[in-house]
Amino acid sequence: MMSSKILGCCNPTTLSRCKNILRGIRETSRQTNKYYSSNCEKKPSTVAEIVKHWSHRFENEGISEPVESIEHILAHILGTRKIMDLANIPEQQLSEDQVSKLLALCECRMSRMPVQYIIGEWDFRDITLKMIPPVFIPRPETEILVDIVLRRIAAMKTECCKILDIGCGSGAISLALVHANNKIKCTAIDRSLYACHLTKQNAEALGLQDNMEILNAILRENGEIKLLNTVEKAPKIEEEQFDIIVSNPPYIPTGKLPDLAPEIKIYEDLRALDGGKDGLNTIKALMKYASKALVPSGLLFMEVDHLHPEYIEFFTKKYTKLNLFHEHIYKDYCCNDRFVELSKLQ
User: Fold this and answer.
1) Which helix (H) or strand (E) holds 63?
2) For the segment 50-104, what is each residue's pLDDT rounded down to a tens digit?
3) How many whole angstroms separate alpha carbon 52 and alpha carbon 67?
4) What CA–CA distance (Å, rounded) separates 127 from 172?
5) Cβ(292)–Cβ(311) under 8 Å?
C-alpha cells in the first residue's frame, strides 16, 4: 500500500505511531468494504461522487479541510497538479486500481496524516517540494517571509548575497530564495538529518544544488552553531559572515504543544515547533548568533509568534552588546504580527 511506502521514510518514533494507526486503517478498510456489501450501495467511482462521499466522511470524522483533503488526494491519483481541474471532469470514472489507491490514501487521511505527506509533495511559492514525515511542513504564511527577504535583497543591489537559513526543514525558504534569485548563495542548516537529506533531494530536483550548502547542525542556546554527523571535512561555519540570516524557528511555548492538531502532534517533528517555556528559546539564540555572524548592516529575518515582536524589540534595547537594531514588524495573512526584521549596527 502507498501508506506503507510513506511510513518507510519515517523516523523510528513516528514509524511506531504510524504502524499502530495503520492497523486501525486496515480495520476501517474492511469495515468500509463490508458496509458497501451489506447495504448493496454502489461505491463512488466518478470524480464528483468521490469528492462528495469522502468530503462528507472526512467532515463527520472531524478531519480539517475535508473538501480540500479529498480534492488534493484525488488530483494526485489522477496525475493533475491543479485541484481546479477536477471541476472539468466530474463524470470521469476511476479505474479499479485508482479506486484501491484512493481508498488507501483516504484512510491515511482518516488517521490524521497530513495531505502533504500523503501525496508526498507540496507547492511552496513557485516551487514544488518533496515532503516526507516527520520533516516540518512549510506553511503558506512563510511565503510572505520569502517575499520580504527578496524585496530587501533587491534594494541592496549587490552582486552576490550570502544567506544562512537556520532550521531549513524541507528547504522551503532557502530554495525559494535561490530559485527566485540566482545571485544568492545559501547555507541551510537543520538539527534533523532527515531534514538535511530532504533539503538536498529538493535542491537536486530543482537544479539548485550549486547555490546551496546543506549542513546537519544545531544552534545552541548560547548562540553557537555545532555541526553534527559531518563525514566530510567540516566547514568552519562559526567563522562565516552572512549578509542575511533567515529562520522560521520553533516558537510555540512548550505548554501549548498538547493543544496542537493531531496532524501535527502525531506526524511532524515537534522539535521544529517547541520554543521552550515562553517560545523564545531559539529566537534568543538566533539573536546572539546573528550579532556575531552578520556583516555590518546585515539583516536577520524571523517568523515568530504574534506576541513575540514586542519582546524582541525590548531585547534589542536592553542588550545593547548584541549590536542589533529593530527595523520592522510585518503582518501575516490574518493581520497578526508575524515577521521581524533586525539589522546589525555598524
Assistant:
1) none
2) 999 999 999 999 999 999 999 999 999 999 878 888 988 989 999 999 999 999 9
3) 8
4) 8
5) no
Which one, of 120, 106, 128, lies nearest residue 51 by Cα? 106
Q: What distance in Å separates the CA atoms of residue 125 and residue 143, rounded to the nearest whole number?
A: 6
In Å, how far are 19, 79, 288 from 301, measured between CA atoms? Answer: 39, 37, 13
3-state secondary structure of 258: helix
316 burial (CB, 10 Å; 0-12 / 13-18 / 19+) is buried
Q: Which grid coordinates are listed for 178? A: 535561490
Q: Which three cell numbers stand for residue 275?
A: 520554543
Place of cell 447495504: 39
Alpha carbon distance 239, 24 (integer Å): 51
- Up-side HSE of residue 61: CA atoms within 13 Å toward CB? 20
Our CA angle for 1, 9, 251, nearest 5°, is 125
pLDDT in tens, 97-124: 999 999 999 999 999 999 999 999 999 9
21 is written with which cell numbers? 494507526
Separation of alpha carbons 246 and 290, rounded Å: 10
The answer to whether the beta carbons of residues 246 and 145 sit under 8 Å apart is: yes
